[in-house]
Amino acid sequence: MTIWVNGEAREVPAGLTLAGLLELLRVGSGPGVAVEVNAEVVRRARHPEHRLNPQDRVEIVTFVGGG
């Protein structure tokens, strides 16, 4: 199925969870990573159960600290 990740179309397996997508993209799901699906933030605790649907729009933001 096709979903949008940070503005780019991607083909992913049907039934993929948000946690599965982050693993597929090699993005951690720990502190410093925020994910929204269709303009709604999805809490980290819900990543394993949140199933993606065709044409979902996913935005992944990684925060990096420094000084």
Structure description:
- This protein has 67 residues and is mainly beta.
- It has a single domain, classed as Ubiquitin-like (UB roll) (Roll).
- The chain is 10% helix and 31% strand.
- The protein has 1 helix and 5 strands.
- The protein has one helix spanning 18-24; strands at 2-5, 8-11, 33-37, 40-41, 57-62.
- The protein has a 5-stranded mixed beta sheet with strand order 2-1-5-3-4, with no helix packed on it.
- β3 (33-37) and β4 (40-41) form a beta hairpin.
- The longest helix is centred in the N-terminal third of the chain and has 7 residues, at 18-24.
- The chain is globular, with a radius of gyration of 12 Å.
- The mean pLDDT is 94.
- This is Sulfur carrier protein ThiS.
- InterPro entries: Beta-grasp_dom_sf (IPR012675), Mopterin_synth/thiamin_S_b (IPR016155), Thi_S (IPR010035), ThiS/MoaD-like (IPR003749).
